[in-house]
Design brief:
globular, TAXI family TRAP transporter solute-binding subunit, TAT_signal, TRAP_TAXI, 11 strands, 2 domains
Length: about 375
């Protein structure tokens, strides 16, 4: 989202029953969720070919009724968002055919889009930046092209909580502590470690005892005392990931105050955004963690399109999610609640081109930012 006001989102946090179970499919505990993981647990990086050779584009784009987008979507919470968008398109568009295609996480989506297995996909800014810079997994296996920006979808906002009795009060106190930054392979973990490993927080990060385990084991480890602190994350005003809610239901937790150095690291990191959210608007299972607000670094999840994706199809999808944003939100509250068309550009970066169909939509609605570049 473009600013720090969580009240722009429909507040559908809901019941305790939705608490632990509501994100069970997203948590990755069963090996199938993404929940910011960028990995479906299959061990597949998404670089394999299904032999289709089809990116889902319509033949020549001349028949308005044949507009088609095949959207690569990882499992769990991201798929819930994708299916909500698909339902909105089905209800509100007479010209666009939208298909949800399961994809192995955010990184896998970028690989499969490069192979033209589908012409659109949901991924995140940190993965896109790594693909551009050929770092991380893309350093070993780069892609020949990078998907282009379409519109913002939702954030996974991240901060740190500690177990009561650990004497951990600020980020600096994490030096020497047993810290759990989520399951290996999760994009929320990768983004967190990317932020922490920069100057001026690298010295604290290097002294942490990083814990590696599945999210299903983490609440028990926190209860047993083998985890001192953990990241907490979810979508502000909506819900937290399941393992965080389970931790809060089993252990007394408190907020770990960010230092100036942590704020500087988060704000300077190109792969993430930052937000400050009222805790009253986003409590963990109605528990008191001793703060009025939380400072978060945000995994920014967005819709992207291959350059070859039909511009009219992209334009029509932008129109549906903008004009019928309420329909998408009714299907899945995690999707961003736009106050204006310009909010759709909330995760756009100057170095990542915007698809021509989306550019035209923004221009037609007086929302285009001339600092951004149009994709070729």
């Amino acid at each position: 989202m473009a600013d720090n006001d969580v009240n722009r989102r429909k507040f559908l946090y809901g019941t305790a029953a939705a608490g632990v179970t509501g994100l069970a499919g997203c948590s990755g505990g069963g090996g199938g969720g993404d929940d910011g993981s960028g990995d479906d647990g299959s061990g597949d990086d998404g670089s394999g070919d299904d032999g289709s050779g089809d990116d889902g584009s319509s033949d020549d784009g001349s028949d308005e009724a044949s507009l088609e987008l095949r959207v690569g979507t990882s499992a769990g919470g991201t798929q819930d968002v994708g299916l909500a968008v698909e339902r909105a398109v089905s209800q509100e568009s007479d010209t666009l055919e939208y298909s949800t295609i399961e994809s192995p996480g955010y990184i896998g989506t970028i690989y499969r889009m490069a192979q033209e297995q589908f012409n659109a996909g949901i991924t995140d800014n940190n993965s896109l930046n790594k693909a551009l810079d050929e770092t991380g997994q893309f350093g070993e296996q780069p892609v020949s092209r990078i998907p282009q920006y379409g519109f913002s979808a939702f954030p996974y906002s991240i901060y740190v909580v500690a177990r009561d009795g650990t004497d951990i009060e600020t980020f600096d106190d994490l030096a020497g502590a047993n810290v759990y930054p989520a399951e290996p392979g999760y994009s929320t973990r990768a983004t967190t470690l990317d932020v922490w490993s920069q100057d001026p927080t690298a010295d604290v990060y290097e002294e942490m005892n990083i814990q590696d385990m599945g999210v299903g084991d983490a609440p028990g480890a926190m209860e047993e005392g083998t985890i001192d602190a953990s990241i907490a994350y979810g979508t502000p005003g909506v819900r937290y990931t399941g393992f965080v809610q389970e931790m809060a239901s089993r252990v007394d937790l408190h907020y770990v105050e960010p230092t100036d150095a942590l704020i500087e690291s988060a704000e300077s990191f190109a792969g993430a955004g930052t937000t400050t959210t009222s805790y009253d608007d986003w409590p963990i299972a109605d528990t008191d963690i001793g703060t009025d607000e939380v400072f978060t670094w945000d995994l920014e999840v967005l819709y992207t399109f291959n350059p070859e994706a039909d511009a009219d199809a992209v334009y029509e999808l932008c129109r549906v999610v903008d004009e019928h944003n309420d329909v998408v939100n009714e299907g899945e509250a995690q999707f961003n609640d736009y106050e204006s068309t310009a909010d759709m550009l909330g995760y756009a970066q100057e170095r990542i081109p915007v698809h021509a169909g989306a550019v035209q939509y923004y221009q037609d609605n007086d929302a285009w930012d001339d600092n951004l570049q149009e994709g070729e």
